[in-house]
Structures are given as C-alpha cells and as structure tokens.
UniProtKB/TrEMBL annotation:
UniProt organism field: Arachis hypogaea
Transmembrane segments: none
Database matches in PANTHER family: ELONGIN-C (PTHR20648)
Record has tRNA-binding as a keyword: no
One GO BP annotation of this record: ubiquitin-dependent protein catabolic process
Family, as annotated: Belongs to the SKP1 family.
Main subcellular localisation: nucleus
Protein name: Elongin-C
Location(s), subcellular: Nucleus
CDD domains cross-referenced by the UniProt entry: BTB_POZ_EloC
Length: 111
C-alpha cells in the first residue's frame, strides 16, 4: 500500500495508528483536515495528532472506521435498532467503561 493511501493517527500518548485513508475519511473532521484547501500540516504529512484522545479510545475509533466501511452500505436496522446484515445482527462492540470517552471523541470527529 502506498503512503498516500494511508493516514497516521496519533494519540495523546504518542501511539501511532496507520489506517487506510478511506477508513479515516469516515470521520468528517479527519476528512476536512485532509481535503481542505491550503497548506495544512495534516494534509501535507498525512498525519493527524489528537492530543485529547487516549490510545485506547483512538484504537476503538480506528476499529469503528473499518467496521463502518464493512457494514454501513448494507445495514438495515431491526426493531431494536441493531444493524442487520444478510440476516445476521451486526453490532459494533463497545465496552461500557469506554462509553463516555468514546461519545466525546465521536462528537469531535463527527462519526
């Protein structure tokens, strides 16, 4: 995979996640950072630092990006609002102890 096809996402602790650019673009905020006109560092270097998002939360967000790419186009919701793909319920797993931090990060990232 070519470097321009990936994006490096850096957590508050400095941990680096290299993800497919298509996956990162699930986030409207990241999409705007990487595609806005001008000479923004994020666009030039293909990396985005999140000083307020911990490694654990950023890892879960990266997992969600790939889950979204895999299931979003073929999702229907059942009566309990669970994603149903090909007759099987597909739910993105979120540990209860991560919920609050994930909600705050998702709000910032517009995911």
């Amino acid at each position: 995979m070519r470097k321009e096809d990936t994006v490096k996402l850096i957590s508050a602790e400095g941990f680096e996640f290299v993800v497919d650019k298509e996956a990162a673009m699930v986030s409207q905020t990241i999409h705007n950072m990487l595609t806005s006109p001008g000479s923004f560092a994020e666009r030039q270097h293909g990396e985005v630092t999140f000083p307020e998002i911990s490694t654990t939360i950023l890892e879960k967000i990266c997992q969600y990006f790939y889950w979204h790419l895999q299931f979003a186009s073929s999702i229907d919701l059942n009566s309990e609002n669970l994603a149903v793909v090909s007759g099987k319920e597909t739910e993105f797993p979120i540990e209860p102890e991560l919920t609050l931090e994930l909600m705050m990060a998702a709000n910032y990232l517009h995911t």
